[in-house]
């Protein structure tokens, strides 16, 4: 995949907000790049997700994006402030058993826990 100026700007924005899950609209508001409109952001997010440079997680009706990291982990996402709290993988060790029991070839999994962080739950 070619890293265009816009793709770079979006990846850079995700880097600077690495403790947050951002929706395409939030990214659009944060990215400082000319000639960028919301539909370009949506298309770019699709491309970056396809290239596995970023991950996407859908909470309700909103898709959030965050940078892919080498280490396999999952997140708790605050639906009020979008803070991401990394958590270890809870399911990895059970997968071989589950796969065998269900005669299922597992090719991936996605777990996101959502709710309110400490600060937001006291509001
Ligand atoms: Zn919060
Ligand atoms: Zn996992």
From TrEMBL:
Pfam families membership: FUR
Superkingdom classification of source: Bacteria
Keyword DNA-binding in annotation: yes
Protein's UniProt keywords contain Ribonucleoprotein: no
GO BP terms in the entry: negative regulation of DNA-templated transcription; regulation of secondary metabolite biosynthetic process
Entries under PANTHER family matching the protein: FERRIC UPTAKE REGULATION PROTEIN, ZINC UPTAKE REGULATION PROTEIN
Requisite cofactors: Mn(2+); Fe(2+); Zn(2+)
InterPro entries for the chain: FUR (IPR002481), Fur_C (IPR043135), WH-like_DNA-bd_sf (IPR036388), WH_DNA-bd_sf (IPR036390)
Amino-acid positions noted as binding Fe cation in the UniProt annotation, renumbered to this chain: 72, 109
Family designation: Belongs to the Fur family.
Residues the entry annotates as binding Zn(2+): 78, 81, 117, 120
Protein name: Ferric uptake regulation protein
Gene Ontology molecular-function annotations: DNA-binding transcription factor activity; transcription cis-regulatory region binding; zinc ion binding
Cofactor: how bound: Binds 1 Mn(2+) or Fe(2+) ion per subunit.
């Amino acid at each position: 995949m070619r890293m265009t100026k816009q793709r770079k700007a979006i990846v850079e924005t995700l880097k600077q907000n690495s403790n947050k899950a951002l929706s395409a609209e939030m990214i659009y508001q944060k990215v400082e790049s000319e000639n960028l409109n919301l539909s370009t952001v949506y298309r770019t997010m699709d491309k970056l997700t396809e290239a596995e440079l970023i991950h996407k997680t859908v909470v309700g009706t909103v898709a959030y994006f965050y940078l892919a990291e080498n280490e396999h982990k999952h997140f708790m996402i605050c639906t009020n402030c979008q803070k991401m709290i990394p958590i270890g993988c809870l399911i990895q060790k059970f997968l071989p058993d589950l796969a065998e029991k269900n005669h299922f070839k597992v090719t991936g999994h996605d777990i996101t826990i959502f709710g309110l962080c400490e600060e937001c739950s006291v509001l």
